[in-house]
Write a structure and sequence with these properties.
The complex is a heterotrimer of chains A (295), B (764) and C (159).
Chain A lengths: L4 E3 L4 H10 L4 E4 L5 H6 L7 E4 L9 E3 L3 E5 L4 H5 L2 H6 L1 H7 L5 H4 L4 H7 L6 H7 L3 E6 L2 E6 L4 E3 L2 E2 L6 E8 L5 E8 L10 E9 L6 E9 L6 E2 L1 H7 L6 H14 L10 H30 L1
Parallel strand pairs in A: 1-3, 2-3
Antiparallel strand pairs in A: 4-5, 5-10, 6-7, 6-10, 8-9, 11-12, 12-13, 13-14
Chain B lengths: L22 H6 L14 E7 L5 E7 L1 H5 L3 E6 L10 E3 L5 E3 H8 L4 E2 L5 E7 L2 H10 L1 E6 L6 H5 L14 E2 L1 E2 L1 E4 L2 E8 L2 H7 L2 E9 L11 E6 L5 E5 L4 H12 L6 E5 L15 H11 L3 E4 L2 H7 L6 E9 L5 E13 L6 H9 L6 E10 L13 H18 L4 H8 L18 H10 L1 H4 L7 E12 L4 E7 L5 E5 L7 H13 L6 E5 L16 H28 L6 E4 L2 E4 L2 E7 H6 L8 E7 L5 E14 L4 E12 L6 H20 L31 E5 L20 H14 L5 E2 L3 H18 L1
Parallel strand pairs in B: 1-17, 13-32, 15-16, 19-20, 23-24, 30-31
Antiparallel strand pairs in B: 1-7, 2-6, 2-8, 3-7, 4-5, 9-10, 11-12, 12-20, 13-18, 14-15, 14-17, 18-19, 21-29, 22-23, 22-28, 25-26, 26-27, 29-30
Helix pairs in contact in B: 7-8, 10-11, 11-19, 15-16, 18-19
Chain C lengths: L4 E7 L2 E7 L5 H8 L18 E4 L2 E4 L12 E3 L12 H8 L9 H14 L5 H7 L11 H16 L1
Parallel strand pairs in C: 1-5
Antiparallel strand pairs in C: 1-2, 3-4, 3-5
The chains are: A alpha+beta (295), B alpha+beta (764), C alpha+beta (159).
Chain lengths: 295, 764, 159
């Protein structure tokens, strides 16, 4: 690993100033579970490491009436250990609880997962379907961007060199809604997704019709894929196997996977359809349970 | 857990489960593994490895690396002695081409695989050494890579070695093609055999390259002193082999080298060869400091191990009654960059458990642009069984016979002639089959969609060979047991138990240790399931000699003939006067009045090719939409002769089976078209995790091995061989598709199920 | 290498300080600076768990954390598992149930299992397997390892 300077700002303003000063040669360190590996294998060689874990705004995890706020440096384990999040955002638990092993979950962050922009990032489809918004700050000001607009290519994001992802905010899901995230890997733990899929549904009170749906898939395109058409196709459709199959077929059609050591094109296309089908079914089950709980 | 039903009760220590003496340091973090060793003034070496699979080295410019502050030395192939390429017979240690061994450690002229070492740096710390390695400039002339056995054997294949010298792994091959050596065996007349057959099946099977996957990387520390004495501290399966090979490569007298084996974090066959030791030695020579070289995990995958990918073609003929009459086997195994892969053991393990009157086996040792293939636990057997045990299952299915009945019909028994010409040494193969058939697992209903049960059977041979042991009886009655056999898994306790049993004392009295090469006689490495059996047999011989010496001491004290001294369970007695007795400890306490210290050292050669047998039964469930296979239940039936420490015997069975499950389902080297290894990490080379595996049931059988005083057989390797075939047979039982390509990764299972659906739809 | 930081941390209950370069991981510092070599390196990229340690109560891979990040932290390693010469029940169980073979992965498994039992004193088999999935063992096939952890849990429950 090349040498670098380690900086640990304690305030966001200080971090912003450092990122401005060292734009292009600085890298924000959250969990480090990817960054340290990239620095060891030479894929990244920053001259400055700016530790995100001492900045209060990046470490905040707050659930209030309107929304969930997840600081960019909050670990996956902190998220899945939170019973309120587990109740309101089960798909977040699905995804944060299966990244790496417990050791990795204790360090890895959703913010880091998003900013690494791996096509297979497991938390990204989940936050996309929940409609998460990224809060970004730099010396030039603040901006808010839907998370599906963050990843632009493998390993690349729409963030400028001097920008910091501060947190994600996710609106509180309405009544009769549910979501599920599923991943396929050859083992049961520790792998990168061959394909993954997240589905969010909002049903009518009777649980018979889709009012809204959002579907996202991973490892089947250069970036985590928000399949808007598949979700839109479910709108006002009856909750049945036929509607679900049609939406899953659209997810498959949107997938443009590659052959690599983790999977084949054909298998990934089939998986995205299978996982989307299963995730939709799971989301519907959760929506109905949620409806009952609220009623 | 299934404890073995001990076939006899004559033992005091053997068959019990004492705590291993090295265990305490391992649970407290104090045990010293190779990378835990530090010396004052020690430098750190790092190696530049080829990014290309096949290339000529036109030039190496290391000037920038040498100029980096903190760098103490740079070496390339030009700094190493030039060694002639030829096979040298090293007796029990095998035939070896030292020139190729040397080139594998540091390339000269050409690189033969992604990861081939071609320069190295010693620096004050590992980070500086890595920075320096990146500054070395190499000019390559790229050559076309050859990445699998069929391409390598094709007519227009690029020639990898201009002058291929066939290698030898136990049995030498003959040169057959520019990139392949051949070994042939056979019996009878296959043409006649196939003419007699009622049913003939022909099938092809492939397997990908796999790695031993030990969790401890390769690490060595070498000090080359001013007298040209070279000391090596490392983790190795064989300190003597390392010493002798190192001496050949760095050209110092063998007697100048001492190899001190540290705790070893797994080997499975992959740590019996030198890779980094000559590099550390040359860096130490150049700097005058001790040098540690530690491989990163990606280097372990790119440049050590692995075990052969294969292409196997079978033609089997059988009579209606289930009798096998003819078999034609074409076994092509990767040798990797240099000749000498496990082809002979592939041949030996392919069919030796069955009697087939007319058989022809053509084995090929095939050069490809991958790391040099090394043994991996029952080398060659899992790939051979994946083919042959699927063929057996298919034949049984075609004939509508129970898979055990079919195997019973053709089962090799004690004394039957094996393909290489020698008879099967005593073992109860019939009892194993009957035990499986009567077992609740075999007879349990298997309900549920997409679930299936599979069986596979293996016969494998234990090595004996050169082993050394010394016993010293101490004044207080404690016993120091030293051997030359590195302990990979608990063999210090299994050897101490045998010494205690033979001496008639408590195992707690025996302190076992593994010695450096200056402190004990030669031995071949801890390989071939040989340590508990082979080294154990020598330990027992040494113990017998010690008892003889002690009887003579008692005779001196009692002023009688040695022949009148009896010893039983550690009590020496005068046969003429039964009142006159001395305990082991009392007699030890009087050693200095009876002639001095009591000790004995022996290097012996226990018999090789002792059979072991195992049958595996597995229940699986296939997810037909994703192709994923889950293991639901797994039972191993294995004949271990005599289980010395039954818990560790079970551990060997379970550990081997889980390695077999890993290679069956997920493990493989993934190369791109240019020959770059793409998954050189424990992320993408997928060892099974805790969650992938259920509890593994074990049934230990004990038909004694006459070549060992307690009947012990080796038990370490065999159970890696059946899992791929057993799982393949279970997949067929579950979803009706045959997966002839290993690993049976989800995408392959999925594709096979889809193809079957399409075929069924077309037929309908 | 003038670029060294002075770090103060609590290691196994004792106040310690050390100098390290920013690029040195916690694993490197434990092993090569403090000579606490019980924490093992298996992969150096967070995929084998051999370097599992507990930092401020959180189980993590020491290879995936920079040593400079540990200023003011409390770090538990395998060397601190036995207290005053008394083995932790996990250590005893690994010995008695033969929960190891070569022993290289053992410290990592022990620290992971300790973190599990700290959180959930009576896990079932599936919970043990799930929690330990980040630790690779190539020797045992996991059977006796999992049994060892469950036995230790029983011992702790009886205590």
């Amino acid at each position: 690993m090349n040498d670098f300077e380690y900086l640990a700002p304690r305030e966001l303003d200080e971090a912003v100033a450092l990122m401005t000063e060292h734009a292009g040669s600085a890298q924000l360190l959250a969990g480090g579970t990817d960054l340290l590996v990239f620095m060891r294998n030479g894929r990244k060689s920053p001259e400055f490491i700016i530790d995100a874990k001492k900045i209060p705004e990046l470490n905040r995890l707050r659930l209030d009436a309107g929304q969930l706020t997840i600081g960019a440096a909050v670990s996956c384990r902190t998220i899945w250990e939170n019973p309120e999040i587990a109740e309101k955002f089960p798909a977040l638990i699905d995804s944060t609880a299966l990244i790496g092993g417990i050791q990795i979950q204790g360090r890895a962050t959703i913010g880091g997962n998003l900013c690494n922009a791996a096509p297979s990032a497991d938390t990204v489809p989940a936050i996309i379907v929940y409609g998460a918004v990224a809060h970004i700050v730099s010396g030039k000001g603040q901006r808010e961007v839907p998370v599906e607009e963050i990843c632009t290519a493998p390993g690349r994001t729409s963030l400028a060199d001097d920008e910091i992802l501060v947190c994600l905010s996710i609106p509180m899901p309405p009544a009769n809604s549910g979501a599920e995230f599923l991943r396929f890997i050859p083992r049961r733990e520790m792998d990168i997704a061959v394909a993954n899929s997240a589905a969010y549904v909002e049903l009518d009170e009777a649980g018979e019709t889709f009012k809204n749906a959002r579907i996202a898939a991973g490892a089947v395109a250069p970036t985590p894929l928000f399949v808007e058409a598949a979700g839109a196709a479910l709108k006002n459709k009856p909750v049945n196997d036929e509607s679900i199959a049609a939406a899953a077929a659209l997810a498959r059609a949107a997938a443009t996977p590659i052959n690599d050591m983790r999977g084949t094109i054909e298998h990934r296309k089939q998986l995205v359809e299978v996982l989307t089908t299963r995730a939709l079914r799971g989301a519907v089950t959760r929506a109905k349970r949620e409806g009952r709980n609220n009623g | 857990m299934n404890k073995p039903e001990t076939t006899n009760n004559e033992f005091n220590v053997v068959g019990t489960t004492p705590i291993r003496p090295d265990g305490l340091d391992k649970v407290t973090g104090r045990a010293v593994f190779a990378d835990d060793f530090h010396l004052p003034n020690m430098l750190h070496g790092k190696i530049l490895r080829s990014p290309h699979a096949h290339a000529r080295i036109k030039s190496i410019d290391a000037s920038a690396a040498a100029a980096l502050p903190g760098v103490r030395a740079v070496v390339t192939g030009a700094d190493f002695p030039v060694i002639e390429h030829k096979l040298i017979n090293q007796g029990a240690a095998g035939m070896i081409n030292i020139g190729e061994l040397a080139d594998n450690c540091m390339a000269k002229g050409k690189v033969f695989y992604d990861g081939h070492a071609l320069a190295a740096v010693a620096a004050d710390n590992p980070h500086v050494a890595e920075e320096a390695v990146k500054l070395i400039k190499v000019d390559y002339e790229l050559l076309p890579p050859v990445m699998d056995v069929r391409s390598a054997m094709a007519e227009d294949a690029p020639v990898i070695h201009e002058n291929l010298q066939p290698g030898a792994f136990i049995v030498p091959a003959e040169k057959f093609l520019p990139n392949a050596g051949r070994t042939q065996f056979g019996n009878g007349d296959t043409e006649q055999g196939f003419a007699e057959a009622d049913l003939i099946l022909e099938r092809e099977y492939t397997a990908e390259t796999i790695h031993q996957g030990y969790i401890e990387s390769h690490v060595t520390t070498v000090n080359w002193d001013s007298n040209d004495y070279v000391t090596v501290w490392t983790a190795t399966q064989g300190q003597f082999g390392l010493r002798d090979h190192l001496a050949d490569v760095i050209q110092v007298p063998i007697g100048n080298i001492n190899v001190i084996p540290l705790e070893i974090g797994g080997g499975f066959g992959g740590k019996e060869r030198i890779y980094i030791d000559p590099v550390a030695a040359m860096l130490s020579k150049k700097t005058g400091c001790p040098v540690k070289v530690a491989m990163r995990r990606d280097e372990v995958f790119r440049a050590t191990g692995p075990s052969s990918g294969t292409y196997i073609k079978l033609k089997f003929g059988v009579k209606k009654d289930g009798a096998l009459v003819a078999a034609d086997l074409h076994l092509a195994y990767e040798a990797g960059a240099y000749a000498g892969g496990p082809i002979f053991l592939g041949i030996l393990s392919s069919t030796s458990r069955y009697n087939i009157p007319h058989i022809r086996i053509n084995g090929f040792d095939v050069i490809v642009n991958k790391p040099t293939m090394r043994p991996y636990r029952a080398p060659g057997a899992p790939q051979a069984l994946f083919a042959v045990e699927q063929m057996i299952d298919e034949l049984a299915t075609e004939l509508d016979m129970d898979p055990i009945d079919f195997r019973m019909k053709n089962l090799a028994k004690t004394g039957d002639r094996l393909v290489p010409g020698f008879p099967l040494a005593p073992i109860d193969t019939v009892n194993l089959m009957e035990t499986v058939k009567a077992h609740p697992h075999y007879n349990a209903p298997l309900d549920g969609l997409n679930r299936g049960r599979g069986l596979a059977y293996s016969l494998w041979f234990n090595l004996g060979e050169t082993s050394s042991a010394r016993i010293q009886v101490n004044l207080d009655g404690s016993v120091t047991l030293t051997t030359a056999s590195p302990d990979l898994s608990g063999t210090r306790i299994s050897l101490a138990m045998q010494a205690a049993e033979a001496l008639g004392i408590a195992v707690e009295q025996v302190s076992p240790a593994v010695c450096d090469t200056q402190s004990i006689g030669f031995a071949i490495p801890s390989v071939g399931s040989r340590t508990t059996y082979g080294t154990g047999a020598v330990v027992c011989e040494v113990a017998e000699e010690i008892l003889g010496q002690m009887r003579a001491r008692a005779a001196l004290l009692w002023e009688i003939d040695t022949g009148q001294v009896a010893v039983e369970r550690g009590i020496f007695s005068n046969t003429a006067d039964p009142e006159q007795t001395l305990s082991f400890n009392q007699l030890a306490g009087r050693m200095f009045e009876t002639g001095g210290p009591i000790s004995y050292h022996k290097t012996g050669n226990p018999q090789s090719f002792i059979p072991g047998i195992a049958a595996h039964l597995v229940d699986i469930e296939v997810d037909p939409d994703t192709g994923k296979v889950d293991i639901l239940r797994y039972t191993i039936f294995q004949d271990v002769g005599k289980a010395v420490h039954p818990d560790y015997v079970e551990g060997q069975m379970q550990g081997a089976a889980v390695q077999g499950i890993g290679m069956a389902l997920n493990e493989e080297y993934f190369y791109d078209d240019e020959g770059h290894l793409k998954n050189a990490s424990l992320l993408d080379y997928r060892l099974p995790t805790t969650l992938d595996i259920p509890m593994i049931e074990t049934v230990i059988l004990e038909s004694p091995n006459p070549a060992h005083p307690f009947g012990v057989r080796g038990c370490g390797e065999i159970s890696i061989a059946p899992p791929p075939a057993a799982i393949a047979n279970a997949i067929y039982d579950a979803v009706g598709v045959r997966i002839n390509s290993m690993p049976m990764a989800p995408h392959k299972v999925c594709a096979a199920i889809n193809a079957k659906k399409i075929a069924a739809a077309a037929a309908a | 290498m003038g670029n060294k930081s002075h770090i103060t941390a609590t290691i196994n209950g004792e106040a310690r300080d050390f100098l390290c370069e920013p690029r040195q991981s916690l694993l490197e510092v434990l092993r090569d600076v403090l000579y606490l070599t019980g924490t093992k390196e298996g992969c150096n990229d967070g995929n084998c768990g051999a370097c599992s340690v507990i930092v401020d109560g959180v189980l993590l891979d020491a290879c995936c954390m920079l040593a400079v990040e540990t200023e003011g932290s409390s770090i538990e390693t395998i060397e601190g598992l036995a207290k005053e010469g008394e083995l932790h029940p996990l250590q005893s169980a690994f010995l008695e149930e033969t929960g190891m073979q070569c022993g290289i992965c053992t410290p990592g498994f022990l620290m992971s299992a300790k973190a599990l039992l700290d959180k959930n004193p009576s896990p079932n088999e599936q919970q043990v397997r799930h929690w330990l999935a980040g630790n690779l063992c190539r020797c045992t096939g996991y059977d006796k390892l999992v049994r060892s952890v469950m036995k230790a849990a029983d011992t702790l429950a009886e205590a």
